[in-house]
Inverse folding.
């Protein structure tokens, strides 16, 4: 086992590693390209340019255009792994997500029923699509929705992660991301207004959808484990800025048993599994632990999550991952501010192990220079036994 | 007659409406005044907001109540007089340019309407000049800007600058909301307040336009 794997495993199993591990979410072409010194990918530029976009409109309407998109998205997984290794991260969240289908150069849907706007970042890279609305409003829509591409997803995920694990797996603890979580994949393809009504009045319909995606998740984890990847991310934004989107009681009623089945399946396959939920998740912490997740991410500071409080509440039962701010600290903060933020996070959650330092999300404007400062600061402050007693408070870096 | 008002208020506040439109039509047939029914629904939404703030209700509950409220208003619409709605003032709402997320914005719109505001909802991905035009055309007293994407938060500043350029800023209040909005964003781009959720948004606008 490599030092990095041991370091990450120690943290996940709530032991003190040699130092606090560092990981990142490799979810942006722009960040990975910048790390590797590569130019933006051509697809984004072709879609953005007014003349070439008209040609792309015709090309994307041809049968088989999905293969082009899938290849680009599969390349993304390799790119992210290479960038994570270059950054000397201990672990990385790698996305394999060949689920997008262009309608034209401006609009796409995914195979689950989301309608999205195509998004291209400032550097001309294809960026994460921007959710517009759901396409599956009724049980009849669900029955009629073509699911062949969904059934094919585990095979694609298995193939890509076999390649990535073989090439990078000895230098990186990989957490595979291969599908949206149960809550997101239930509400987004129908829209939140429709979901809010169905959650009270059409629970039978929702239960069919939730069970389908729980089954898919289990098969995706089989595919990932078969590839030799050690970790899996269940990304499911259950909260927003000021709290859960749905009552914890209703979340438990509709989703709880399925989350438990997912974590039991992961553990049976030898996978470690992260629950990622943006927003203020403070009132859901006990749920996350009871469902059996090994780690929680991102513990978002700008949503009011206090890392030290989370550590006190559940830090002896679950590993914490995060919570470096991506609105300021990793975008335009000074070196001193980045070092201070890292030190504060390690002080809040590092004691006794069970903490992995990471950005609290990803977006194209994150600064690679500040990510490097994050790694540098983690190496400086994160060596166990920690020496971050109150007397060093106020210490600063120039 | 008054029992219908109580029933409308109760089922909306308790999130128990099976078909709000049908209930409102039944109440109208029974002789209830449209304005009274609108008032009852407004009171129910105040109660829903109170329960949300106290942690009894969650975002999905607010949205459900908002959807029921919209059904009720649609049934009432043909019977409402011009002065029955929007008496508290006019708010222009939109999701800023470059962003198309609208759950929060829609909810704020519904809550403001139920609280007696006239809401001009410009939709999503709205250019600053459209906000300026809407403020002028509707003599709005306030603007609500929604932004979820961190990469688009600068669009808030563009709206504020456009309103300044049009000479409207001094007579106008601007509130911002959305996942990426912080106090620092409010200060950096020259807005007046940040709302963390729809209930807080109603309180902010009510404070400005009481």
């Amino acid at each position: 086992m490599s030092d990095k794997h041991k370091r990450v495993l120690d943290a996940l199993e709530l032991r003190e590693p040699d130092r606090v591990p560092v990981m990142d979410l490799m979810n942006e072409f722009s960040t990975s390209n910048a790390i590797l010194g590569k130019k933006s990918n051509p697809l984004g530029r072709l879609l953005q340019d007014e003349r070439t976009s008209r040609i792309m409109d015709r090309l994307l309407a041809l049968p088989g255009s999905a293969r082009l998109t899938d290849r680009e998205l599969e390349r993304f997984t390799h790119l992210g792994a290479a960038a994570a290794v270059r950054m000397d991260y201990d672990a990385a969240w790698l996305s394999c997500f060949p689920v997008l289908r262009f309608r034209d150069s401006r609009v796409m849907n995914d195979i689950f029923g989301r309608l999205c706007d195509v998004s291209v970042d400032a550097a001309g890279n294809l960026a994460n699509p921007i959710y517009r609305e759901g396409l599956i409003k009724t049980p009849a829509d669900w029955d009629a929705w073509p699911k062949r591409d969904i059934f094919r997803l585990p095979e694609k995920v298995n193939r890509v992660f076999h390649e990535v694990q073989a090439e990078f797996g000895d230098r990186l603890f990989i957490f595979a991301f291969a599908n949206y979580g149960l809550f997101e994949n239930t509400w987004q393809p129908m829209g939140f207004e429709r979901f809010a009504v169905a959650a009270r009045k059409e629970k039978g319909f929702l239960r069919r959808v939730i069970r389908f995606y729980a089954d898919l998740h289990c098969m995706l984890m089989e595919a990932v484990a078969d590839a030799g990847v050690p970790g899996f991310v269940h990304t499911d934004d259950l909260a927003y800025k000021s709290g859960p989107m749905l009552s914890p009681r209703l979340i438990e009623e509709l989703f709880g048993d399925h989350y438990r089945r997912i974590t039991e399946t992961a553990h049976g396959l030898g996978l470690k599994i992260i629950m990622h939920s943006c927003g203020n998740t403070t009132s859901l912490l006990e749920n996350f632990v009871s469902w059996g997740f090994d780690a929680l991410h991102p513990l978002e500071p700008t949503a009011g999550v206090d890392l030290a409080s989370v550590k006190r509440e559940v830090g002896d039962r679950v590993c914490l991952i995060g919570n470096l701010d991506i609105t300021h600290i990793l975008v335009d903060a000074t070196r001193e501010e980045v070092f201070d933020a890292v030190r504060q996070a390690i002080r809040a959650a590092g004691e006794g192990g069970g903490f992995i330092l990471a950005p609290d999300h990803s977006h194209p404007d994150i600064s690679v220079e500040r990510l490097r400062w994050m790694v540098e600061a983690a190496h400086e402050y994160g060596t166990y036994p920690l020496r971050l007693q109150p007397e060093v408070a106020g210490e600063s870096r120039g | 007659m008054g029992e219908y008002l109580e029933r409308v208020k109760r089922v909306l506040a308790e999130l128990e409406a099976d078909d709000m439109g049908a209930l409102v039509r039944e109440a109208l047939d029974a002789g209830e005044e449209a304005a009274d029914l609108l008032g009852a629904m407004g009171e129910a939404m105040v109660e829903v907001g109170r329960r949300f703030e106290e942690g009894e209700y969650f975002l999905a509950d607010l949205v459900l109540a908002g959807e029921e409220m919209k059904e009720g208003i649609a049934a009432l619409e043909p019977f409402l007089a011009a002065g029955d709605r929007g008496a508290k003032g006019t708010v222009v709402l939109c999701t800023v340019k470059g962003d198309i997320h609208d759950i929060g914005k829609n909810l704020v719109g519904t809550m403001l309407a139920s609280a007696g505001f006239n809401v001009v909802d410009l939709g999503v991905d709205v250019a600053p000049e459209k906000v300026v035009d809407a403020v002028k055309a509707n003599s709005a007293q306030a603007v609500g800007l929604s932004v979820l994407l961190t990469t688009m938060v600068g669009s808030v500043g563009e709206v504020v600058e456009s309103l300044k350029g049009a000479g409207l800023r001094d007579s106008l209040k601007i509130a911002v909301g959305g996942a990426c909005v912080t106090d620092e964003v409010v200060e950096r781009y020259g807005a007046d307040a940040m709302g963390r959720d729809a209930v807080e948004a109603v309180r902010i606008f009510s404070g400005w336009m009481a």
